Amino acid sequence: MKSNLIRWGGPAAILSGILWLMYIILQAIAPAALTVEPYTVLNQTADVIYKVTLLLSVMLFAVGLLGLYARHADRAGSVAKLGGAAAILGGLLFGVGGSLAAFFAIDGAWYFMMGGAIVILVSLLLLGVSTLSTQVLGRWSFVPLLIGMFCLAAFVFGSTGLFQLKPLGAWLGASLAALVGAGWILLGYALWSRQPIESARTEPGVA
Predict the structure, then answer these.
(1) How confident is the model at residue 23, as a pLDDT?
(2) Angle, CA 56 vertex, CA 50 and CA 61 arms, to 5°
């Protein structure tokens, strides 16, 4: 199980970043095809594709976080263990909420999705701190915490309505969203490019 998470965590994070960027692009060009006013869906198929893209992106990122946890599970302290548990809980909450919203159009599912997103953010910050402390990703060890800062900034600015200010807010929102997606891809590359822990232990001089 642990070796599978290490093997697939990187590709999962890379794919999650690509899907996230696709979601942001759809968000920029597709609203006219989806809605004419808030919560009025014109094209059900397009709306489902839109939601499934977001669902897969975040779920795959949760898998990437589990891969990050597995990467240094043997030397991880309580912070990393909490981060790993939060990744599982956040992924489950977002997966359930996203599936209910995408396929059954249940209004209350949005709360599951938001709860899951917040828990995944907490997981990212905890694992970011642990990764920076243990240096399990070598020179890339700063990446998880940096992405966490971008995600936290996006969450705070979005909650305060700053992204609604035109044109500065829209540009800020798009920039942060793009940085988050690029960061997920970079994290996936860092996970994928590092040797498996078992190999690193058997080769002298490997960090």
Answers:
(1) 87
(2) 130
